[in-house]
Amino acid sequence: MTLPAPGNDTVIDLQAAYEGAGIQAMLAQLDLELIGLRPVKARIREIAALLVVDRARQQVGLETKPPSLHMSFTGRPGTGKTTVAARMSKILHGLGYVRKGHVVTATRDDLVGQYIGHTAPKTREMLKKAMGGVLFIDEAYYLYRPENERDYGAEAIEILLQVMESNRDDLVVIFAGYKERMDIFYQSNPGLSSRVANHIDFPDYSAEELLAIAQLVLAAENYRFSEEATAAFADYIHRRMQLPFFANARSIRNAIDRARMRQANRLFSRLGSPLTKLDLMTIEAEDITASRVFDGEVEGLDPSRPLT
Fold it and tell me: By the 8 A CB rule, do 132 and 163 touch?
C-alpha cells in the first residue's frame, strides 16, 4: 500500500521538533557551562535551526541534499572549542544526523605516520572510532608541512577529504586551531576549504568573563573567594593576561588549582587549631597574591616551566 504524499497544507510544529530532540535543553546547558561566547552560541543556534527545518522539510517530502556539517573552530587555547564540539555532537545526535553523538579527539600524531604505509591505517583507525559522531582535530594545521617533502600529512588530509565526502551522513569533522594558522591551512588545500561550510571563531574572554569563570569553577568544587580574594584574583587576571602563554579559561583553572594548593598548605600550617567548614571552603587573598605573577618573575619565562 502506498501512502499519499503530504499535501501543501500539512502542518509541522517546529517548536515541538526543537524541544522533542532536546535541543533547547542542550543549548540551555551550553549557556550554563560557558560564560560569554555570544557569537559562538548564536552560530550554534543558527546551525540547530537549519537542521530542525531540514528535518521538517524531509517529513513533508521536500527532499534536498543534506547540509554540509563539517566545521572549523578557530581561536586561542581555553576558549571553549572542545566543550562546544561535545555539545554540537549531542545536538547532531538528537536530530538524527549522527548515530552515536560521541566525540573523538585527534592530533597530528594520531593521524600521520612516520614511514611509508603507516599513515593510511592510522588515519582510517581514527575515522573508524569517530564514525557515528564527531572527529575533533586539534591544531589541525600541523597536518600540513610543505617545508618537508617527505612528510605524510598530505596523505592523511586526502583520506580525510574522501571520508568527509563519502560518509557525510554519519560523520562530522571539526578542524580546530589558531585562526591565522588555520587560514593558511585552508588555503593550502582548496578541496578541504570547500568541504568545511561552517566556520566559527571563538573570541578571547574579557577580564570580567574570566572572573565569572573562576567563580563558577570554585562553586563547582565547593570553594569560594573571600571578598579580598575576589579583588586579588581580578588583579591577577589583568596581570596574567599581559604575560606570554596565556590560555584564557585554561589558565584560570590552572591558577585556581594552585590557589587551592596554597590554601591547603596555609590550613595545614595551623595543625592543632580547629577549622570550620567555611575555613575549608574559602580561598583568601594571600592564596592568590603568593603567585609569581605579582612579582614579575613570569616575564620571559620558558613555556615548559610551570606557571603560578
Answer: no
Annotate the chain with DSSP letters as a single string.
Answer: -PPPPPPTT----HHHHHHHTTHHHHHHHHHHH-SS-HHHHHHHHHHHHHHHHHHHHHHTT---PPPP--EEEE--TTSSHHHHHHHHHHHHHHTTSSSS--EEEE-HHHH--SSTTTHHHHHHHHHHHHTTSEEEETTGGGG--TT-TT--HHHHHHHHHHHHHHTTTT-EEEEEE-HHHHHHHHHT-HHHHHH--EEEE-PPPPHHHHHHHHHHHHHHTT-EE-HHHHHHHHHHHHHHHTSTT--HHHHHHHHHHHHHHHHHHHHHTTTTS---HHHHHEEPHHHHHTSGGGGTTTTT--TTSPP-
pLDDT one-digit tens code per residue, 219-268: 999 999 999 999 999 999 999 999 888 999 999 999 999 999 999 999 99
Residues contacting 246, CB < 8 A, separation 6+: 240
d(CA 44, CA 37): 11
Q: Enter the pTM of the model.
A: 0.85
Cα(180)–Cα(263) distance, integer angstroms: 40
Chain-centroid distance of CA 55 in Å reads 26
| Single-letter amino acid, residue 191 | G
